[in-house]
């Protein structure tokens, strides 16, 4: 038996022990999803992971992959959150080989609480280091899955001066017509984040494309540029 199975069982048991029914109901209602919650908030969940890793060594990529995907297939939302905690914590395994793991997770993610962290924290880092994965972003941008389209934007979120501007522009303008809130919001968010690196570029881009960009996207993009003229 893999050592990862007892580690998963340990975390599941601890989640049950520290669960809170009232918080579970409130958390599920806030997210508006069908998947149930244990009712374990972030600090307590991170403590569960800390306890688990103190007695189980994740010593190679195969075990890292097993642990992440077993947690991701959990019945309760906090198990998915733990899967992302694990994926992010073990930095030495966040290699090119890990991309297919994160992609598998993303393809079954069903709301912003999972999509955004996968795209910006995990996938985005690999795309920045290994530009061949940009072909995946291009494919996601045309996907029927709205969450993949959002991910095609948010994977650029933390790239700062290393942002592939031609690809980001192409993706934004391709998706700018969409009425979907989560797409409009993501366009504004990624532009706002990039405005911390190049405010003149963002201000100019918004001006030049104001006719096609949704008002929501423009408001979000310009939030930290107000009171300044470029």
From TrEMBL:
Family matches, as InterPro entries: ARM-type_fold, DNA_alkylation
Domain of life, per lineage: Bacteria
Classification via CDD domains: AlkD_like_1 (cd07064)
Protein name: DNA alkylation repair protein
